[in-house]
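Record type: monomer structure entry
Structure origin: computed from sequence
Chain ID: A
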Amino acid sequence: MNLTKKILLVFVLTSILLTYEIAVAFENGQAATLVLGQSSFTTGTSGTTASTLSAPRHLAFDSSGNLWVVDNSNNRILRYDAPFTDGEAATLVLGQSSFTTGTSGTTASTLNGPFGIAFDSSGNLFVADFSNHRILRYDAPFTDGEAATLVLGQADFTSGSANRGGSVAANTLSNPIRVEFDSSGNLFVADASNNRILRYDAPFTDGEAATLVLGQSSFTTSTSGTTASTLSAPRHVEFDSSGNLFVADGSNNRILRYDAPFTDGEAATLVLGQSSFTTSTTSTTASTLNAPFGHAFDSSGNLFVVDRGNHRILRYDAPFTDGEAATLVLGQSSFTTGTSGTTASKLNLPFGIAFDSSGNLFVVDGSNNRILRYDGPIAVADTASTGGGPHGDISAPSFSLDKFTFARSFPEHVLNTIQDDPYIPIESIKDETLALPFVINENGYAISKYTNTIVTNTIETGNPVNVKLNLSDETGIEHVALYTNLRGDQREISSSDTYIIFDEYKELEVIDPHQFFSFANVTVYENQTKYSINFNVTFAKPMEKSDIIFRIWDDRRNMADTKIFDALEIVGDDITKEEQFSLLLAEPAVKQAESSEFALFDKEKSLVLEGWAGYYQESFSDSSILQTLGFEGSYIPYWVKKTFGEGIHNEDLEVTDLKVALEYLIKIGVVK
């Protein structure tokens, strides 16, 4: 590679691996990267098989990252197992005895036009069985065609009349459309045709009465209205991080917020999509809506809204104000267009959305009979990490709480359960044979289970930092989070805005709003009777003396925290991109990639690459793109495609150099 091309590769890789907050956020009109229910992005036919859908309406993720889809016209719920590939087949069905039947019914094992789903804290699935006017609970672990074990809205599993065939009451429903749980495990239901939201208090019993109503002044009224305390065909309910309830008020073309704690018939305090609580007009602008049907919050608290009638998804940025304008649109090229379509960048009457654990947005594209994934902001871990789970020959079994309670997995040589004085700094120990529970760059500490102070580790920017937690093999490792950028009196997890979350079954999550990290990953090693989880980071800028808090939990969310005060201080100057990449290009992985020889592509294949950046109308799946380039795989982050596509289109990047960079990104696990 000549000098010009090497410099170009440095800048291309720099934009990919370091400036992730600029390169990887959602963009207006961006193309989806994954499709389920169809074999390509340009088909929209319905079907009744394990790999097809008919009028999907909602979706949700279980605790393992698998995707569950409400397949309305097939009267069933489907589960798709992660990791996902274009057009993959579902692996489980509820509401039907097989994947090739789609009949409706009113029994404990059948459905009639289901519309919404949600998981409780135990992993059980609740279904809004719309046309049977009821809510059903299916108990985990699930099997094909299993029977529900709980019914709300009806007296039994074989009744299916609206409002139980009589007048509206606290124990009746009429076309329930969505369900959601609050932090206490109580169930909120959007009772669409009764123009109200109901709360059912846990633990649940068959046919129980609701205990709270919103949108009506009592449980025996069901009139629609356009005020701060009334609703007209509500479509969806979702809680923000403060426990406030956001409602998609469909026929009023607006989103309402009800502030907790709730009281019967209370007035909403915020409206989006309208300029006031007494208007309900439709339009196609950044501040208006047309039959909103769902919403979800991203990890920053911004609200994404399904603007069904405008065939688009809108994002409203927090903090919210009445009638504010959206800042992002998906499914359209601008805020003033509202046409439907069947491509990777168009939608046709979307019905629901949900975020996966990596921040990617999944959309129910109802009239296209498909599910789409839009790749969201990619954390630094996805640019410089080998992934979230164990690697190589490492095996990390999940742990059980009885062997783990309150950090008892720390090695037995730790002398003090609670440090005599947790604010007197502990000196480090170099003897690795002690298998110390906490290590920073080979400085080990005999920490206690709860609160500790250590002699601060001062490290310069640009130098690698290894923070190690050693656990016994009685527990294994499933979920571990490291929280930092904590100082002074702010010594609680809630005060941290910089953290890394490792989950054996998910992508690594790195939250780094200040861009401290230029590199971050997690590796897990087994050493006889111990497991070692290693958080490996490099700082690009200084960080004041900070605490570290570890939170370890199992998949039932039983957890233990261990605090290490004054653990880390980063000093020195900000490291420039050029300085960091002078090190990167010297690594063997890149040198090996540079030595590869590839043939140039013809213009037709170059157009495929230009399509990544939106310069070419045809859409291509990730797997077909990789196959065209001579690689195997099924996932390319959107920001990678955007960067390379622009380079090809602007003739700043030759395909030979592109393949060198791709080979490296595959090697480090960014492209899969």
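Annotation 1: The two ends are 26 Å apart (CA to CA).
Annotation 2: Residues 21 and 44 are 34 Å apart (CA to CA).
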